[in-house]
């Protein structure tokens, strides 16, 4: 990547910005999902390839950030890895800290809860219930995440009034209620609808082939 972004390298690569390649990272992430949710189980050869494509995007973004002076916020891939390493150490004191001797006594849920509390302490600026919910998540996943935050904060969900004359508002309220019902049954609504639509596509293709 250093060679591609340097003088004499690839003119297309040099011309890119964080914004111009953002959609590639989103697309490659969904291709990882495709590899994991393959009909016959996790497709490891495909997963290996798609993880490489995600890593390429990480390296690409880091290389562009390295072109900014460090006193202006610039960083390189080594800084990314170091930051991740330090985060894993901080958030796993039962493994890396003084509480190592209690690690075997902790349940998975207790470890998750401790991670969440440590995360909150690292981000004191997040004071709202829904701070940290990525606004660009797909709608079903966005709703699911927001409901998860409300549940964790033990806050009753306050729903907007659906205007009966507004078809979009009524439709949104209906879908929202379905996401709530899915959560109550332990169902991932995003995954469930994705799999249902995949099956529709397969059956439709089969029907076309028979005609």
TrEMBL record:
**Do you know which InterPro entries this protein is assigned to?**
MazG-like_dom, NTP-PPase_MazG-like_N, NTP_PyrPHydrolase_MazG
Q: What domain of life is recorded for the organism?
A: Bacteria
Which residue ranges does the record assign to the NTP pyrophosphohydrolase MazG-like domain? 16-96
Which GO BP terms sit in this record? dATP catabolic process; dGTP catabolic process; dTTP catabolic process; dUTP catabolic process; TTP catabolic process; UTP catabolic process
Could you tell me one molecular function GO term of this UniProt entry? nucleoside triphosphate diphosphatase activity
Q: Which PANTHER family match?
A: NUCLEOSIDE TRIPHOSPHATE PYROPHOSPHOHYDROLASE
Instruction: Indicate what this protein is called per its UniProt record.
Output: MazG family protein
